């Protein structure tokens, strides 16, 4: 088989296109494939598909294709233009590349696979043999392509959460599909306007399909959800992990206050025990459990706060909101009559939004998907050294977590 025939077949070229020449540059380790079309052929106007004769050609262009063995493969061609009576002079669509692309369709598909597998633009560059800017351009195009193709769908269970872009309270807000673990919308900030901007990215039918919304106790997110989702008061579920985090932080505040007093008296019983109180007992090693038992027997305020925190975990094991409400009211009475001010503050916070805490018993959702996504996003940031540009950060999130149709066709 001649080289021209070989490349025609692997490129999938059909009439009027054919491979006119193939040149091998051993020094540059490159294969140059020259593609032409037959004389007198007609081409479609890209806007109306009218068959028209070739008007002229652009200057010869290059497209990076998949490697041939260890050799970089470059396609060369002059793109025909047609003169449409309705749309003027237009470049035709090429069968091997998208408009304004410097890469073949096959190469872009492979590059997207590599970017997804490595989860880092820098890592993809070394495999693909292209620059960071070129890799990023492919990623950006893939996201734009995916967003254009995105169709409205049902989103019965969603979550809304914030993600730090940089330090000093620089955030983005994200809406997640909890069933498919994908990011459906993203906007700057973490206030009501940011949440509204996220909801605006959903279609009316998508918002109407929402049956439950998981979130933390952010007043801004509650306000936005009520303004965008019908009957939101019955659909909001305050995330149990967020609530337990508040309770755990309260235990730590009690520990720090008590440890300060004990140290002043020369008592170091709480020194080095922070992790013991913050972790669930199921996560402690045998040695840590022994230390915990010794601290627990001392009957300190920290131990009492920890016990109330552990008791609160049972709020989410009840079958109905009524049962959960009864449990909480009993827990609340116990806590509110103690001297554990940080725990009392948590109890009051939960009581204010209790209906949307015990709604877990109805909807059974948490923002665990959001926490998993946050870990994935942080890992991506670490691998590439962070994103200085907020728009690039959002683009990367949609590429890796958006569940988009990224591939060229």
Automatic annotation (TrEMBL):
Transposase IS204/IS1001/IS1096/IS1165 DDE domain: from which residue to which, for each copy? 158-397
Q: Name one Pfam family in it.
A: Zn_ribbon_ISL3
> Where in this chain does the record put each Transposase IS204/IS1001/IS1096/IS1165 zinc-finger domain?
43-87
Under the heading InterPro entries, the entry gives: Transpos_ISL3, Transposase_DDE, Transposase_HTH, Transposase_Znf
Top-level taxon in the UniProt lineage? Bacteria
Q: Where is the Transposase IS204/IS1001/IS1096/IS1165 helix-turn-helix domain?
A: 93-134
Q: Entry's PANTHER family?
A: TRANSPOSASE FOR INSERTION SEQUENCE ELEMENT IS1557 (PTHR33498)
Q: What is this protein called?
A: Transposase
The protein's organism comes out as: Fuerstiella marisgermanici
Q: What's the source species' lineage? A: Bacteria, Pseudomonadati, Planctomycetota, Planctomycetia, Planctomycetales
